[in-house]
Design brief:
The protein is of the alpha/beta class and 426 residues long. The protein contains 13 helices and 17 strands. It has helices spanning 83-95, 101-117, 131-144, 168-181, 202-215, 227-236, 245-248, 269-277, 286-291, 299-305, 323-340, 350-362, 395-405, and strands at residues 4-15, 18-30, 33-38, 50-60, 62-68, 120-126, 147-151, 153-154, 188-190, 193-194, 219-223, 259-263, 281-284, 308-311, 379-382, 411-416, 419-423. A 7-stranded mixed β-sheet has the order 3-2-1-4-15-16-17. It is globular. It binds guanine (GUN) and fe (iii) ion. The site of guanine has 11 residues, from helix 1.
């Protein structure tokens, strides 16, 4: 059923500076697209079936622009290291286990179930280097109804043998076969995923670029996350003047190639200009950047530049799939940056991070992340009566409070692209 009306307190962003709130109004889904938000239901929609969520909070689904599915198993553990040591000590060891399909099956069931129960309706997901396990992950996400880009990771240097592609030829062959086998899903699409420059040889990048052009795939990777990493890339790519150039050299940095780069904590001004000019999306992952002591990305500066920014959980450098948590940490980190680093960049506001988590990241998927007319219909219904309060609160106050306090059990219904994924009666 893709024609219906949801009644409740409808909250969404049109721009980064304002919440739009219609109290006990109606948001209409017509053929999977939003047909508008109304205070009084227009006559033409009166025959549509009605989900009555009077007094509940209804928001667009949240978007996770950067998450590693195989790392979900060790979330919350092994955080006392910086990026490269963390990858070598914990991450690569865990990801190597996904050559075992029985393990992958168990682990990806847990990941998919928890993602389904969260407020996230769209995600850009890293798998591992293993094509078979990544295809299995895609099938599970497809069946859940969540819309996602999923990538088989490519890496062929500076990693353990158990995670390195056998050869560039084999990597290309595996990746192409994986693309062809996973192109026809409804909800899930392949995304090219060179892990990051330190683990991808020039020859691998050159060949991935050919696949990118042949299949018109989007690309996701990591950029300027950690100071040691940036120095290492300088040594590995002496012909580049900044990190981003090492992707751009192979036409995998925006323009014709829709691209998400996670982090950009320490981007050089030339890199920032290239990100802006070539429409690269930045996935801001504040919890990850805190846990791995990477730093605080200057998101206010990126917004001032007009750069496209969304939020990411970056499991397992981030501990939780909750994009609400990413919102609050984005605010908190920006406050510390303002106080301790740069007084000229004002902290992010709650309304700005709500925008980043919905319409900001949603733009990577098209018209996604808002209830404006013509947007794909992704909605999440939240009950907050169980988070008790003695006073009278406005809907805006209740929404603000939920951003800080909501847990999965407060999510009582979820709709993606018009389809109802679940309803829990409360
Ligand atoms: N850079 C390369 N791989 C990774 C990863 O798995 N997580 C994070 N946070 N950064 C990376
Ligand atoms: Fe990451």
């Amino acid at each position: 059923m893709k024609n219906y009306v949801i009644k409740g307190n409808v909250c969404y962003s049109k721009s980064k500076d304002e919440f739009c709130i219609v109290e006990n109004g109606y948001v209409v889904c017509e053929n999977g697209y939003c047909a508008g938000v109304y205070r009084k239901l227009p006559e033409c929609y009166e025959t549509f079936p009605n989900y009555d969520y009077t007094d509940k909070i209804i928001i667009p689904g949240l978007v996770d622009l950067h998450v590693h599915a195989p790392q979900y198993s060790f979330r919350g553990m092994g955080m006392d290291l910086e990026l490269i040591e963390w990858l070598n000590t914990h991450t690569f060891v865990e990801e190597a286990k996904y050559s075992d399909m029985e393990y992958a099956n168990r682990a990806y069931d847990i990941f998919t179930e928890d993602l389904l129960n969260s407020a996230t309706t769209r995600a850009c997901i890293f798998g591992t280097v293993h094509p078979q396990a990544t295809s299995l992950l895609m099938k599970k996400i497809e069946d859940s109804g969540i819309r996602a880009y999923v990538g088989k990771v490519n890496m062929d240097r500076n990693s353990p043998d158990s995670l390195c592609e056998q050869s560039v030829e084999q990597a290309v062959c595996d990746t192409e076969q994986w693309i062809v086998e996973n192109r026809e899903f409804e909800n899930v699409k392949p995304i090219l995923t060179p892990r990051f420059i330190p683990t991808c040889s020039d020859k691998l990048m050159e060949n991935l670029s050919v696949l990118q052009k042949k299949y018109h795939l989007p690309v996701q990777s990591h950029l300027s996350e950690n100071l040691g990493e940036i120095q290492w890339v300088k040594e590995l790519c002496p012909d580049t003047s900044f990190y981003g150039e090492a992707y751009d050299k192979y036409d995998m940095f925006g323009n014709e190639c829709p691209t998400i780069m996670a982090h950009c904590v320490h981007s050089h001004i030339d890199e920032i200009n290239l990100i802006k000019n070539q429409n690269v999306f930045i996935a801001h992952c504040p919890e990850s950047n805190t846990n791995l002591s990477s730093g605080i990305a200057p998101i206010r500066a990126y917004l001032n530049h007009g750069i496209k920014v969304g939020l990411g959980s970056d499991i397992a450098a981030g501990s939780t799939l909750s994009i609400f948590k990413a919102m609050t940490m984005a605010v908190q980190c920006s406050k510390l940056r303002w106080r301790l680093v740069d007084k000229s960049l004002a902290p992010l506001t709650v309304s700005e991070v709500f925008y980043l988590a919905t319409k900001g990241g949603g733009e990577f998927f098209g018209k996604v992340g808002s209830f404006e007319k013509g947007y794909e219909f992704d909605a999440v219904v939240i009950e907050d009566a169980s988070i008790k309060y003695p006073q009278t609160l406005s809907v805006k106050e209740r929404l603000e409070r939920l951003i800080y306090l909501a847990e999965d059990r407060n999510i009582i219904a979820k709709f993606v692209n018009g389809k109802n994924l679940f309803e829990k009666i409360k």
